């Protein structure tokens, strides 16, 4: 059984609380069990500086959380974010150009090709700040199918590449610390 250890720190930004990956062993917090470990599959296909793993505590299950990917619409604004989080020098301004996303394999309904993508999830992923989702949607540029230029029928903010089937096995256990 494979175990992935994530170093995370609890922060409050834009009136929402969550844990964010710091990549820094000096900033561990308490572990949460993960409701949706399939989100870690993104680690198999992408490791860009414009995303950070985040864990949002569940309202329905104590000691559980939901994984998301915080995507920076303008990747230049994500520079030095790990350092700012570790030293508590971040502000809401550091997160203005970010949006909470899910990793998913998206199929174009026109050409049937599949792509690894980041999408803004349905529902409101910003508990505690109900107007923030509309603001983030307004800042986002939604992607079309790179093969046929057809709309993807979802709020796709990043196309990582064409999906390739792999034999990689996702982590069985996820521990967020």
The gist of it:
The chain is 10% helix and 34% strand. It has helices spanning 42-45, 81-86, 132-139; strands at 3-6, 8-13, 16-21, 33-34, 51-57, 64-72, 98-107, 114-119, 156-162, 173-176.
Explained architecture:
With 177 residues, the chain is mainly beta. The chain has one domain. 10% of the residues lie in helices and 34% in strands. The chain has helices spanning 42-45, 81-86, 132-139; strands spanning 3-6, 8-13, 16-21, 33-34, 51-57, 64-72, 98-107, 114-119, 156-162, 173-176. The strands form 2 sheets. Strands 2, 3, 4, 5, 6, 7, 8 and 9 form an 8-stranded mixed sheet that branches. It is globular and about 45 Å long.
Write out key terms for the chains shown.
single chain; mainly beta; eight-stranded mixed β-sheet; 10 strands; globular
Fold topology:
Layout: E1 3-6, E2 8-13, E3 16-21, E4 33-34, H1 42-45, E5 51-57, E6 64-72, H2 81-86, E7 98-107, E8 114-119, H3 132-139, E9 156-162, E10 173-176
Parallel strand pairs: 1-10, 4-6
Antiparallel strand pairs: 2-3, 3-5, 5-6, 6-7, 7-8, 8-9
Cα gyration radius (Å): 16 Å
Number of domains: 1
Catalogue the unreliable spans.
Answer: 167-177
> What percent of residues are in strands?
25-35%
Broad structural category: mainly beta
Query: What is the number of strand segments?
Result: 10
Largest sheet report: 8 strands, mixed
Give the overall form: globular
In N-to-C order, the SSE pattern is: EEEEHEEHEEHEE
**Helicity range:** 10-25%
Q: Give the number of helices.
A: 3
Q: Termini, distance in Å?
A: 19 Å
pLDDT averaged residue by residue: 82
